[in-house]
Amino acid sequence: MGKYFGTDGFRGEANITLIADHAYKIGRYLGWYFGQQNSAGKSKIVIGKDTRRSSYMFEYALVAGLTASGTDAYLLHVTTTPSVSYVTRTEDFDCGIMISASHNPYYDNGIKLMNANGEKMEEAVLLKIEEYLDGAVPEVPYAERDKIGCTVDYALGRNRYIGYLISLATRSYRDKKVGLDCANGSAWMIAKSVFDALGAKTYVINNQPDGLNINVNCGSTHIESLRRFVMDNSLDIGFAFDGDADRCLCVDEKGNVVDGDAILYICGCYMKERGKLRGNKVVTTIMSNFGLYKALEAVGIEYEKTAVGDKYVYENMVNNGYRLGGEQSGHIIFKKYATTGDGILTAIKMMEVMLEKKMPLSELAAPYKAYPQVLKNVRVADKVAVRADQEIRQCIGEIEELLGKEGRILVRESGTEPIIRVMVEAGDLETCRKYVDKVAALIEAKETDNSN
Fold this sequence. Notes:
This protein is an alpha/beta fold. The chain contains 15 helices and 19 strands.
């Protein structure tokens, strides 16, 4: 991770740690950089945004920077992160930009960059942008006269993405009652269109964004409302997306949550049965539940573990030719169809398994038994200092010894927020809570001492 760009873009609180001038300068550099790379001397970059109030500010700032450097800016307007990825790689764009802080609160925002293949931007390019932001490289020239870029309304690209999703369904969803929680975010205009077109009886909640309510008590980070909605309306299944719809969690017909690990298990088994699980492997992160690995082993499926972040999952899949990977949080990557996690695509693939196997979601998920797991986020001033603190490290080591082979503790830095995540997995919930609270309390005490 660099100074500004983490595992999922440049993210921070709008107009505090991520300001409009940052967006303008990123646009200036990208416009110049890709203009130099393009043989025609002029590049084109596509931009999407989520429903946060500040997304419009950052969109206009990026457009100003891009066009000032001679690049044409194509606007998808409010759309999902995976749609930007899809349009970038299929419509011959030099770069894609998504303005979103994903599952973060409305007051945060982020700038995610994608290369021409719709993949996360290469680290080398991000480092060059950071040097420009810090004034460590000469100012890039302004375009003049007819070389100045133009802005293009490109809502058509979003519609093509919707058509692509619809084309992936293997069966009609006729008579299936499907609930969608759009998190008052990017999916609000897309998800219902897809499920309606496929014949589902679609029930939608949290699809009235006002710029301030994205992710507020809704979506994949607050799935309780969807659980109640599924039960109250006797739905067959429910899908919850996050702010930019690159995540998806499910709720079965009984109101049980089916998380990313369970989705990987269900889809992994289905793909193996049909000879489509290349390498007989599923790619996970170190945050995946013990229960997933035991369930996969029981059906003869192997797995890989990567660092936390769909970026690392995707890199592993590309390097080894695997087709299925993801995170417990609901970032699921179907490599044959997308280069990033895609919440709506994940929902479509889950519907495929249900319909082809003629089984309710509860039965598909039944063999997967999750180990109790507790996760606590601790806000800190300096993530690196916390991880290096000897007393904290010693405490973690002692807990690792006590857990042995019957559990684990994982303490890591968030790649997108000033947070240390403390997770413990063990045979019972009480043990998980005890050790998580012990480490979290120590970190909080250290923070208090350092602030005094």
